[in-house]
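Assemble and predict.
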Amino acid sequence: MRRHWIKTFIFLVFTFLALISGFNFIVDPLQQYTKQKLLKPVYLNPRYLNAGISKSHKYDSVVLGTSMSENFLLDDVSSVLGFKAPVKLTISGASAHDMNKVLKTAYKYKEIENVLCDIHFYSYTGDVGGFSKGVGSLPDYLYDDKALNDYKYLMNIDTLKLSLRTLRYNIFDRKNIVLDKNRMYQWQHIFENSFGLKNLLKDWGNRPKDLDIKSIQTSRSPENLQANFNLDILPLIKKHPETNFYLYYPPYSIFEYKQFRNRSWLKNVLMFKEYIFETVSKYPNVKIYDFQTAKEITHNLNKYKDLSHYHQNINHWILQQIKNDRYRVTNKNIHDLNKDILYQVDTFDEGTLYEY
Amino acid sequence: MLFNSYEFIFLLLPLSFYIYFYLLEKRLIIGAKGFLVFVSLFFYSWWNVAYLPIILTSMLFNYIIGNSLNENFKKVRIHKKTLLALGIIFNLSLLGYFKYTDFFLENFNSVFDSSIPLLHLALPLAISFFTFQQIAYLVDSYRGETAEYDFLNYSLFVTFFPQLIAGPIVHHAEMMPQFASKWNMLKRYRNIATGLFIFSIGLFKKVVIADSIAVWATQGFDQEEVLTLIEAWVTSLSYTFQLYFDFSGYTDMAIGAALLFNIKLPINFNSPYKALDIQDFWRRWHITLSRFLRDYIYIPLGGNRKGPLRVYVNLLATFILGGIWHGAGWTFVFWGFLHGMALVIHRFWKALGFTMPKVLAWFITFNFVNIAWVFFRAKEWGDAVKVLNGMFGINALGSLHAITKFGVAGKSEFLVLLIIFITAIVTLTLKNSMQLRQSFVMTSRTALIAAILFVISILHFNRISTFLYFNF
């Protein structure tokens, strides 16, 4: 009986673990093994899911970046820009290092013709080489190829929850937006009713007033911004001349720029933009677009849900501008663009807005 | 290496178990014990091998001093008391250097307005535990209460991995005979089964209960700048239960793991939050520490033999020292002081012959302990003040909004309160793991329960945090 208890215990432990791991393996909610034919993945948690999508989905183009790019519709990217099989590997709040790891992983599995990526100022303000959510937030056991560490994925309560959620959506809620690859990772539907001047002004009123100036000066210094770019973005451009990089400065509302100026980072932002252009312009596979002077967008404040996040329609507009090669940064216009934004910020008077 | 890690559970523990008993079966007793010491040191070095020389030096030094104090004293030409003093000074210096230098320098700097640079030494793991255990050994050798121990058994006493990192603080007199006993050299299936059972319970307490509750405590103590009434109570209660489930769960695992090797570690927790007075609390919380403080500080100070006033002073001194043993900081000193004062008041109250209804007694005790933990947990004075301000209504009654921030705790206010309430009920009404150990019978039902707890815990080792949108 005594031996029997121990044997029963060990038998039960291994049986349960095997059953749960097996179930997780079959449902494979993070797409680690093959692209599920029967079940669609739930497109949430990009930090985890991007690894599996890179490995097991078919694609020849990548939409990279932050929340600025999350609302691109993949069908739109195909039809406007002509990319054959685009996939989205964005991460909201991504740091440059997050993007680096994601894109490197994608290169490991596929040849990539095109990369469309936002240059969001905040991706470059963190510690150099740092993940936005800390060490382990893009876990190696998902991003690497080693089968030996997959137990961390399979024997995992959160994977089990994801598996159950994947099943639940696929069986009872097949129309749910989170299963739609075309709309993967989009946030438009969540904030559909949050766009408008009122929210924008509220956000402006709530902006933190007392900021730790010293840490801002170091994290937003030209050196820090450049170091992040040099470590995580530039090497990928250099290493992959076969890929067309479409980089764009997202059209923040003019308020975002006002905030930059009020906190005296504006100079650093403009210097950073010049630095990027200088560094990258010698590579023929890179095109940079700057929508931040596009007054018809950035001053149309009803199209924003806060200082920086714009409506999905603007994502469509961005694609069209890129297609028509408008707002392209060249060595002829770079200085004018910077002057223009300075002029816009100086002449913009928010006082009139409150009268509405 | 933590008990709640894949490496420990699936490699180190089963392998060391099989190899140890295999060597014993082959009658390689010295080999088996040597192997267990080796495994323990490996376990210790897993964190940082740089600390290995520290524990080895400490062990060797204390063994030699202890033995000299005892049997071989005639050969040593040094005064016995001097030798003991030397031994204690060595241990305290080692502990003091690593644990308290920066604390001392900080205070020195602030008092004398100087700027002596801090050393920023990393605290060698478990140094507080093995130092105390060996001081007890030296003192008892001096008193002539130790036998001449075999070095291998002594090494096992100091390093035996189940108790090495976080206790229980074992006493040589209860350990050495067990390591020496021939009876313990055979596999004992009842011990193995009980060990696995207790280990599973402890693992679940630590990984599933404590680690889940910890999120709210961390949020309230370390991240929020202002707490509302409910937030502050959720914060402090979360920590109170987190600490209990974490520490007692870890102790259960230690007791369970040791049982696989037929070693019975002392009980360390006995439902402390059921205590009806503060003295009762300290007979139920971290029992082996209370025992050490009583035998090696309180009683040598004179205990309760020198009149009531001296008792109060001794109690206070013992608990302030106990406070600073937990960590180098004024918050720990103050925490110790609070408990010392509570014990003094309790004694005074009892001396006057007052009594009170049980429910009230429990309520006062629990709330005192809960409030005192605020100082224990807070990293800075300011954090303690912040939580207490919130708890006692200096901020307006508010919702739990800040504690359940989207993507941090990811739970609704109601659910958080409900979970804490259920945890409280479980803690206060159910049998604790040591009682479960007493009543443990080897049935399919207990095997199933243990297996389920164990498997759920394993699934919790590696969490996928949900950074749901939106915090860009």
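Residues 467-472 of chain B have pLDDT under 50 and may be disordered.
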